[in-house]
Every structure is written in C-alpha cells, then in structure tokens.
C-alpha cells in the first residue's frame, strides 16, 4: 500500500443517492464540480445505488493514481468506460498489460512531431479542400451544423495520415459516422457498468451494428495491405508491415484494432472539443476578435496554411489550451483499484472504481481563478506557473498519457486557421448547448451556424 498524502484514515465524504441523484440528473457536471469544491482535498464517494465510485479530483491525488501509484489503478477492470471501449478497439492501445505495451511501442513513433510535421502539407491541403465546400452554404445562406462540418473536415485531414489514398472519402466518413454511434450508444452502459453484457441495454444493438459496419469497411483494407504491402508512409501501411516481439507479422485483428483505436480517438475527441468553440466564442467577443485578428495577420487570405504559420499562431494555441480546460473531450478517466490503497487519508478497497475527471479538476475554484470564465490568458507564455502539474490534465498523464496531443494541436490549429481565414459565422440558436456525457464530452444538440464569406483564398 502506498500513500498519496498524510496517512490519516478518514471516511470519504459520501454523496448520498437521495440528495445527489436528482442534481446529478439535472446538471451532472455542475454537481460534480460543486461536490469537489465543497470537499477540498478529499475523496468523494458517489453513492449511486449499485455503483459507488470514488471521485478523485485533487491534483496531488490525480498524480497518485495516474503516475506515482499507477500500477495499482488499471483500465483492465470492468470500470465504467473501458469494457465498452475494448469491444470497439480490442485489447490493444486502449487496454492494459503486455498487449497495451506492445501496441503503444508500435504506435507512438507515428505520432511524434517529426513524423507529423512531415505530413502537414498534405493535411493542410486536405483541410483547405474540405473547408472550400462551405463556400456554397455561405453564399446561399444555408445553415450548417458545426459538429457535422468539423467532423467532415477532420476526417479529410487525418484520413491521409492513417490510410494514404487507400480509403475513399465516403468510406472514411462512414467510419466516422459509425464511431459516432459507438460513442453515444455506450453512454447507457457508462451509467450502468455493473450490468453484465447478457442484460440488454438501450444502445447495445446500435453499438454492435456500428462495430460491424466499421469492420466491413476497414477489414478489407487491412487484408489487402497485409497481402500486398505497397508501402507508403501511412499508418495502415506501417502496421501491416510491423512485426511482433517474436518477429512475426501482426495478425489482421491486431492491425485492425490499432487502426480503429487511433482513428476513432483522433476523430471523436477532436471534433467534439472543437464544436464547443463556436458557441463559446460568441460569449467572449474580445477573445473572438483577437483570434480573428491573429489569423488574418498570420494567414491572410492564404490558401493552404503552412507549418511555419502554425508556429506563429500563438494566441490560437492559447485559445485551444483554454478550450481543453473548459471542455476536455476526455472528461472522464476511470480506473479500477487492484489492491487496497489510501488516497488523501481515505482507504480505497481493492476492486473499487476510481473516477478521475479533467473537467472537474480543471474547474476547481482553489486551483483556477474564475474557473467558469473562458480566458485564454491563463495559457499566455508569461502567465504564472500553475499550482500543480495535475491541475490541468486534458491529455491524461503517466504511462497512458495521450499519444495524440501533438496531432490534435496541429490539426486543430490548421482547421481554425483555414476556416476563420475564409469565413465568419453567427449561431442560429444563441447560447451554450447543454453537454451530453458520452465517451467524450459533446454538445447535446446540433449547433447550427450561418456562415458568411470573409476572404477568399488567393489563387495559387
Ligand atoms: C482533444 C483531443 C484529445 C483529448 C482531449 C485526448 C484525451 C486523452 C486522455 C485523457 C487520455 C488518457 C486516457 C487514460 O489515461 O486512460 C488519452 C489517451 C490516448 N489518446 Fe488521446 N486525446 C485527444 C486526442 C487524441 C488523438 C488525436 C489521438 C490520436 C492518436 C489520441 C490517441 C490516444 C490514445 C491511443 C490513448 C491511449 C494511450 C495509452 O493508453 O497508452 N488522442 N487521450
């Protein structure tokens, strides 16, 4: 047993079913932040009837779970999210143990700054073409849905990195749509993780059908690539050529699992977080004005945004950092305790579910000044150092830290720069949408936008 802080064994603060459930149903995220703010430095036990997870929000405690005593907190258990995630991605990069480790070793080299910088020109060209399709609706005054359009643009941007020219755009889009179904269908299981798979739940059928459809598109690509590896610098080609620790070619299931896990996390996390930016910017016009000014100055009426320009878009980067504080797509990071432990003086029993939440920790009033205010200045280069490394952990931490952080920063900057160098928008329905808690934190309804042309790209 290890200790995260002083070895005082105290009872956890228990949030009871009768008092908490109605509030949780009405405003789940606000209620969790309120509970954490009201119990500084403590672990909170959420009594939700048959499920009683520990909500761990104090940055030092988060560090204990994700890094210092990470061996005791596993994703291999039946905890809330991971069992469903494994049904989509198999037991590779999103699981635990030797298969996770092998997968991580295989995948990580494809997401380094050096590798991705080499793909910027292709990615940016794909984004430019995808954004150009918005000219029609902008001219005609037809509203577009922010989530659908951002997801379409991301899909175009990353398909090249993942699949080269081996998947056609319509199929890549279909994969993203099916992944979307997976992410929302599993929210019912997220709420009832104690139910065995044999007990049917709403969303199960849609989940299974979506996984089947994804396989129908991707497995033939995997097979073709393994049978006739034509090379190329895309991830599918690299995985099809990869060997396991014994020098054998990876079997088709492993290649499929690695591709699906990374493609799914890339598209899902990026489009859900970027969708929030549209309603948010309308609440903070001075932030929007500064963002537009920077993009106009650095990119101008350019056609394809370059790697050099990405480096100059410093305020855009601060906006993205703040967006990930306020609306982290990975809002819930669950673990299962392997052995008894003590966190912040509270005894945790083996088998207990631990819920970490970047959303809650990143809004704790003791660590963030006016946490409800969207203020990119928190991330200015000369801003005071954060009180604790784990007061901000949108990409997790420790051995499971996200491998896609650089990809996100690159593609998100390219997308915002390309989009706002050509268009402005207004919301068709003013105000912030209510969040929907699925595998990622998503806007609960459509976010219709009316686009207006700003500048047209210069002719090449
Ligand atoms: C807004 C963007 C993103 C956010 C907020 C995000 C968040 C996270 C978080 C919180 C974790 C930790 C999970 C845990 O500890 O259990 C994680 C892991 C991971 N992320 Fe991301 N992610 C993002 C983008 C991406 C992208 C673009 C990729 C593409 C490769 C990616 C791939 C992964 C993978 C494979 C893992 C598991 C790593 C491991 O367990 O070894 N993510 N991400």
From TrEMBL:
Transmembrane segments: none annotated. Heme binds at residue 402. This is Cytochrome P450. It comes from the Bacteria. Keywords: Heme, Iron, Metal-binding, Monooxygenase, Oxidoreductase. Gene3D superfamilies: Cytochrome P450. Its cofactor is heme. It comes from Micromonospora palomenae. It holds the Pfam family p450. GO terms for molecular function: heme binding; iron ion binding; monooxygenase activity; oxidoreductase activity, acting on paired donors, with incorporation or reduction of molecular oxygen. Belongs to the cytochrome P450 family. Coiled coil: none annotated.
């Amino acid at each position: 047993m290890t200790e995260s802080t002083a070895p005082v064994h105290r009872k956890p603060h228990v949030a009871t079913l009768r008092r908490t459930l109605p509030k949780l149903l009405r405003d789940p995220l606000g209620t969790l932040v309120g509970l954490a703010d009201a119990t500084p430095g403590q672990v909170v036990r959420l009594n939700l009837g048959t499920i009683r997870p520990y909500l761990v929000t104090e940055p030092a405690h988060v560090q204990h779970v994700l890094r210092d005593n990470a061996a005791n907190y596993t994703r291999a258990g039946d905890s809330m999210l991971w069992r469903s995630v494994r049904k989509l991605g198999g037991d590779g990069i999103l699981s635990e143990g030797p298969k996770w480790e092998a997968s991580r070793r295989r995948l990580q080299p494809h997401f380094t700054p050096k590798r991705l910088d080499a793909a910027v020109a292709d990615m940016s060209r794909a984004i430019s073409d995808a954004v150009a399709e918005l000219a029609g609706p902008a001219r005609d005054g037809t509203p577009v849905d922010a989530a659908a359009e951002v997801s379409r643009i991301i899909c175009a941007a990353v398909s090249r990195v993942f699949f080269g020219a081996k998947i056609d755009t319509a199929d890549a889009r279909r994969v993203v749509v099916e992944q979307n179904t997976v992410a929302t269908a599993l929210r019912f299981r997220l709420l009832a993780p104690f139910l065995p798979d044999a007990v049917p739940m709403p969303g199960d059928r849609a989940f299974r059908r979506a996984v089947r459809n994804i396989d129908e598109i991707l497995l033939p690509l995997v097979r073709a690539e393994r049978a006739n590896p034509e090379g190329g610098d895309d991830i599918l080609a690299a995985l099809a050529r990869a060997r396991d620790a014994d020098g054998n070619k990876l079997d088709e299931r492993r290649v499929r699992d690695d591709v699906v896990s990374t493609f799914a996390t890339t598209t899902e996390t990026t489009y859900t977080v970027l969708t929030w930016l549209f309603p948010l910017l309308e609440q903070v016009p001075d932030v929007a004005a500064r963002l537009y000014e920077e993009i106009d100055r650095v990119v101008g009426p350019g056609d394809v945004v370059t790697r050099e320009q990405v480096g100059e878009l410093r305020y855009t980067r601060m906006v993205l950092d703040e967006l990930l504080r306020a609306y982290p797509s990975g809002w819930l990071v669950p673990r299962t305790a392997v052995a008894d432990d003590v966190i912040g003086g509270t005894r945790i029993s083996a088998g207990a579910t631990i819920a970490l939440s970047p959303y809650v920790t990143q809004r704790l009033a003791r660590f963030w000044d006016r946490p409800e205010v969207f203020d990119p200045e928190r991330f200015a280069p000369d801003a005071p150092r954060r009180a604790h490394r784990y007061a901000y952990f949108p990409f997790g931490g420790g051995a499971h830290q996200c491998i896609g952080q650089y990809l996100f920063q690159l593609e998100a900057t390219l997308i915002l720069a390309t989009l706002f160098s050509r268009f402005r928008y207004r919301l068709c329905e003013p105000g912030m949408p209510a969040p929907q808690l699925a595998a990622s934190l998503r806007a609960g309804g459509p976010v219709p936008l009316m686009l207006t042309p700003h500048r047209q790209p210069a002719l090449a």
